[in-house]
From TrEMBL:
<dbReference type="InterPro" id="IPR052896">
    <property type="entry name" value="GGT-like_enzyme"/>
</dbReference>
<dbReference type="InterPro" id="IPR029055">
    <property type="entry name" value="Ntn_hydrolases_N"/>
</dbReference>
<protein>
    <submittedName>
        <fullName>Gamma-glutamyltransferase family protein</fullName>
    </submittedName>
</protein>
<dbReference type="InterPro" id="IPR043137">
    <property type="entry name" value="GGT_ssub_C"/>
</dbReference>
<dbReference type="Pfam" id="PF01019">
    <property type="entry name" value="G_glu_transpept"/>
</dbReference>
Length: 536
């Protein structure tokens, strides 16, 4: 791959990192180092991914936790494997039960949106199938950070503060007090550089490590979760937890200009990214910074989201044939619908998210693309007393309309925003990539892939480049450093352009590519957060 190593459109002053024996890229420096430490102890890229993911539940609790979901794409022994570690709705959570509590849509906080957490099962599956070290060894760094504490980084403190202010206003019931006791022990959010620790979190991680996850689903932690739910009339039970296990799945892909772009199949929204790429691959883009390029990217993403939101749900309930919609014929049909002016797609508004993404690689050729989330920041606002475990609120995306493809049903997995990505060429790994952040994720995937393949940007430059985000209708948000003359040109095409100062809304990405001839690793990390690459 021939890259431009002089392109730095984002004022980050970061450069692509090169290494030969191992690399970990993620949104928190200490977490990246935790993964690298595991590599140096003899672990492989899979062990490093688990260690980094577990550490992030402590080091970036504003976006993920033990009580969340996860997805992974794993390249090992010249094959790509997919893991879906997203949990289903509890067996007693029905549309009728929700409406009986006075709701017309599923709320964002409290017990109603809580689904079975899948992340711990995902760690166990990865460890058992591909790991080299024991789970007990791999989770040590996370346990130590939870037990002894760590100083908050600037972006982490910023989002922690936002969450505290919001929760202080809206989470007033007794069931939410453990959140404040855990994450605001001094009656406020911890500040930049201040040490925070969670003995309950350390205890939970140690229990998961000692039992290979059994305690979380069929032991003491499961009992604590179920007892907490029962006390406040929640829906999740020990039976729900005991019946869960993460699922190995076959990744899906589209061919894009000589490369294969891979995503996890539904219930994740990776399909949206592939649909958009399948549309734009029929265009000839000569330059990145033109109004034509941006207009076609935005319009393709609108069409892809329209299809995705209309059909994506638990694959057991989907009626869409993936082979049909990822075909060249379907891409051509949708491409023909892109006109010279901005279109008005079917209306819906993508909500915000809260997620962490990481990429790992070792010197043996193993590579992992991993993503983990509680959703909407800390999740449901519920922390299981004494455990440090924030429970996710993924059920918020279910519909209470029984005719909707993503209608709530007991045991069903909802439409999921978090998606890991992977790139191959000619049957060989190029590497993992991802851009976390709610419905920005497939939009980030489209932009990063095109930056890399169409415009030859190196990993860091591909992440630094100004981003746009379609919100709804004709509304498109852009970053402050987005070229002003192109923003004006898009307005003339009918787009409603809004400049947004908060960089966090445009996603946080990581990339690791491997040079096919030398095996050298090259990585880029997100300038919009406290991102870091640990390598050797």
């Amino acid at each position: 791959m021939n890259f431009d190593f002089h392109y730095h459109p984002y004022p980050s002053q970061r450069t692509t990192v090169f290494a030969g024996r191992g690399m970990v890229a993620t949104s928190q420096p200490l977490a990246a180092q935790a993964g690298l430490d595991i590599l140096k102890k003899g672990g492989n890229a899979i062990d490093a991914a688990i260690a980094t993911a577990a550490a992030l539940t402590v080091l970036e609790p504003t976006s993920n936790g033990i009580g969340g979901d996860a997805f992974a794409l794993v390249w090992t022994q010249n094959k790509l494997h997919g893991l879906n570690a997203s949990g289903p709705a509890p067996k007693t959570l029905t549309i009728e039960a929700v409406k009986a509590r006075g709701y017309t849509k599923i709320p964002a906080y409290g017990w109603v949106p809580v689904t079975v957490p899948g992340a711990p099962s995902g760690w166990v599956e990865l460890s058992l199938k591909f790991g080299r070290l024991s789970l007990k060894e791999v989770l040590k760094p996370a346990i130590e950070y939870a037990e002894y504490g760590y100083p908050l980084t600037p972006i982490l403190a910023q989002y922690w503060g936002y969450a505290y202010k919001r929760y202080k206003q809206i989470l007033t019931g007794d069931e939410f007090q453990p959140w404040f006791e855990t994450f605001a022990p001094k009656g406020r959010a911890p500040m930049v550089g201040e040490i925070w620790h969670s003995e309950g979190h350390a205890s939970s991680l140690r229990s998961i490590a000692d039992t290979d996850g059994e305690s979380f689903y069929r032991g003491e932690i499961a009992e604590q979760i179920a007892a907490f739910a029962e006390h406040y009339k929640g829906f999740i039970s020990q039976e729900d937890l005991a019946g869960y296990r993460a699922e190995w799945v076959t990744p899906i892909m589209v061919h894009y200009r000589g490369y294969d772009v891979w995503e996890i199949p539904p219930n994740g929204q990776g399909l949206v990214a592939l649909l958009a790429l399948n549309i734009v691959k029929g265009f000839n883009f000569t330059e990145k910074e033109t109004v034509d390029t941006y207009h076609k990217q935005i319009e393709a993403m609108k069409l892809a989201f329209t299809d995705g939101k209309a059909h994506i749900t638990d694959p057991s309930f989907m009626k869409m044939n993936l082979a049909d919609v990822l075909s060249d014929e379907y891409g051509s049909i949708r491409r023909s619908e892109i006109a010279a002016e901005a279109s008005l797609p079917l209306p819906y508004k993508p909500p915000s998210g809260g997620t962490v993404y990481l990429a790992t690689a070792d010197g043996e050729g193993n590579m992992v693309s991993f993503i983990q989330s509680n959703y909407m920041g800390f999740g449901s606002g519920l922390v299981v007393p004494g455990t440090g475990i924030s429970l996710q609120n993924r059920g918020h995306d279910f519909s209470l309309d029984s005719a909707h493809p993503n209608a709530l049903m007991p045991g069903k997995r909802t439409f999921h925003t978090i998606i890991p990505g992977f790139l191959t060429k000619g049957g060989h790994a190029v590497g993992p990539f991802g851009v976390m952040g709610g419905y920005m994720q497939p939009q980030g995937h489209l932009q990063v892939v095109m930056n890399t393949i169409d415009f030859g940007l190196n990993p860091q430059a591909a992440l630094d480049a100004p981003r746009w985000q379609w919100i709804e209708g004709k509304k498109v948000q852009v970053e402050p450093h987005f070229p002003q003359h192109l923003a004006h040109a898009l307005v003339r095409k009918g787009h409603q352009i809004e400049v947004v100062l908060d960089a966090g809304g445009f996603g946080r990405g990581q990339i690791i590519w491997r040079d096919p001839e030398t095996g050298v690793l090259m990585g880029g990390t997100e300038p919009r957060t406290d991102g870091a690459i640990a390598a050797w």
